[in-house]
Amino acid sequence: MKNKITIAIDGFSSTGKSTIAKLLAKKYNYIYVDTGAMYRAVSLYAKNKNIINNISLNTNKLIASLNDISLKFVYNKNLGYAEIFLNGDNVESEIRSLEVSQIVSKVAAVSEVRKKLVIAQQKMGKEGGIVMDGRDIGTVVFPNAELKLFMTASADKRAERRYRELIEKGDKVSYEDVLLNVKERDRIDSTRKDSPLIKADDAIEIDNSVMGIQEQFNEICKLVDQKLL
After folding, report:
1. Average pLDDT of 32-52?
2. Helix (H) or strand (E) holding 76
3. Is the pLDDT of residue 1 over 70?
C-alpha cells in the first residue's frame, strides 16, 4: 500500500472543489492547499492598490508588484484547515467577496502571476500527501498526480450555491449578478492563453449538479482508496 499520493482537483467555480478537498485532507491526514485562495489574495492586493477594477487591469503594474506580495497558509485548529495570509494579514474572509470574484479570473490570466504561484504550489506538494484544488492542478502544477478529478455542474446550479453562500455571509447581491459572474469566470478561465481550464486526459469527471456533498465524498474516497492499494 502506498503511504501518500497527490490528489489534484480541477473544475469550474462553485463546484465544491474546496469543500471536498478539505474533507479528503482531514480523512487521509493530508495537506490541503486552496490555490484559488492564492489567486484571490493577489487579486485583493491588486484591488487595494488600485491596480485593477471592474473595468481595467494595469498588467505592467501588477507584474512589477509581485515581489511585494507574500502569501502564507496558516493552520487554524478551530476550523480544521489553513487560512491564507497576505503580507501578514489574514484575508480569508475578504477574498470570498463577489467583488474579488469579479476580478480574480483577469488576474489569474496574467502569465507572470501564474508562474509565481505555480512554483510555490509545486514546492508545497513535492513530498506528496497533498490535496490541491484549482484550475490547472492536474494539467500544469502536478501533471503526474496519482489521482486527478475534474468537477463540474450546470452554471445555474453553481450560481445558486454561490448565491446562498454570499447571502449567508450577509453580502447584498442578486442571483442574476452571481450567475453572470459564474458564466464570465467560466469564459475567461476556459479561454485564457496560459494554462486554461481544461480536463486532463486522465482525470475522472465528477458532475455534481444533482449530487450532495456526502455522496460525492463517498465516491471519491473509493477512488482514493483504489490508488492507495
Report:
1. 96
2. strand 71-76
3. no
CB 207 within 8 A of CB 16: no
Angstrom distance (rounded) from CA 126 to CA 71 = 18
| Helix (H) / strand (E) containing 99 | helix 98-108
Kindly list the domain boundaries of the chain, sorted by start residue. Answer: 6-224
Does residue 229 or residue 117 have the better pLDDT?
117
**Sheet with strand 89-90: strands edge to edge:** 71-76, 81-86, 89-90
Q: Which helix (H) or strand (E) element contains residue 148?
A: strand 147-152
- Mean pLDDT over 201-224 rounds to 96
Model-level pTM greater than 0.90?
Answer: no
- Provide CATH code, domain 6-224: 3.40.50.300
The backbone region for 170, taken as left when phi is positive above 0, alpha when psi lies in -120 to 50, beta otherwise, is left
* Per-residue pLDDT at 81: 81
Helices (H), the chain: 17-28, 35-48, 59-65, 98-108, 111-124, 155-169, 175-191, 213-228
Strand partners, 32: 131
Pair 169, 101: CB distance under 8 Å: no
The values of phi and psi at residue 101, to 5°, are -60, -30
